[in-house]
Design brief:
This protein is of the alpha/beta class. Among the domains are: about 1-85 and about 165-175 and about 190-240, P-loop containing nucleotide triphosphate hydrolases (Rossmann fold, 3-Layer(aba) Sandwich); about 245-280, no CATH class. Helices cover about 40% and strands about 20% of the residues. It is built from 11 helices and 10 strands. It has helices at about 45-55, 75-80, 100-110, 115-130, 145-155, 175-190, 200-210, 225-230, 230-240, 245-255, 270-280, and strands spanning about 5-15, 20-30, 35-40, 60-65, 70, 85-90, 165, 195-200, 210-215, 220-225. A 6-stranded mixed sheet has the order 6-7-8-3-9-10, with helices on both faces. Strands 2-1-4-5 form a 4-stranded antiparallel sheet, covered by helices on one side. The chain is globular and about 60 Å long. The chain binds adenosine-5'-triphosphate and magnesium ion. Adenosine-5'-triphosphate binds near residues 16, 40, 45, 47 and 48.
Amino acid sequence: MNPSAVVELVGAGYAYEDGPAVLRGVDFAVPEGRSIALLGRNGSGKTTMLRLLSGGLRCGSGRLLLEGREVSYDRAGLTRLRTTVQLVVQDPDDQLFAASVGQDVSFGPMNLGLPETEVRERVREALEALDITALEDRPTHLLSYGQRKRAAIAGAVAMRPRVLVLDEPTAGLDPHGQERLLAVLDRLRDAGTTVVMATHDVDLALRWADDAAVLTPEGPRTGPVAGLLADQALLDAAGLRRPWGMAVTRLLRDRGLLGADVPGPRTPEELDAWAAAVREA
Ligand SMILES: Nc1ncnc2c1ncn2[C@@H]1O[C@H](COP(=O)(O)OP(=O)(O)OP(=O)(O)O)[C@@H](O)[C@H]1O
Ligand SMILES: [Mg+2]
């Protein structure tokens, strides 16, 4: 058990009906205030793990702990879990169902039985956080894909979760949309929200996350993201590519241009900044 974990899977296993085990003996802790990337190839079990973590699926074996206490899957237990951990699924069309953006975002808080003024405040805050205030009265089915993604995330943010769990939030977004979403996630992180994101984008993980969990056939390996993504054997086992930033960092270190204790560039912009600093010096 990890004492700093808000939510934690301990020895968790899961198999879909009539299927083989997808996850076996998985230990995965989400400590408060960390940004965590869940990495793995297609079919490695990322979505399954996120659904176990947020209570949509129930562990076949092992346990789900919320603040160190085992989650009971009765009404009270699930409410306690859902007000702490909110999952946003990959396809916004599986999440959005109300006629307008505002109605959709207000659904969760209303369901908690909160007073109307509080619901309105939360909706305003969530729309603002996702930068979609202007879309409040728009029918959800008329939005662009990127707008629907943000509306779906706003619905989760309106629940003011301590842990926001996002399944491939950048998939299908253009580079500009990805940057905007990362800026939103940075703001949420600064406001104290813990974010867990499933992705196969190793460059994104290196740049955004503090920690990573890399799913391999032997189970997840967890730790600070830069350390895990520098481990070629682990990347091979997980079927992931080496991040671009890691390749550059290694080249710079091999050429004696970057000290072993100086973090390497993770984006083209950071490489430019590094090159400019070197020129100045
Ligand atoms: N509803 C389901 N019924 C039966 N098997 C399922 C179901 N959902 C997923 N699986 C199986 O469980 C395994 C893990 O799937 P999961 O969706 O968790 O992987 P993933 O890492 O999220 O993949 P992707 O990157 O493609 O989203 C796969 O082998 C998949 O076929
Ligand atoms: Mg998935």
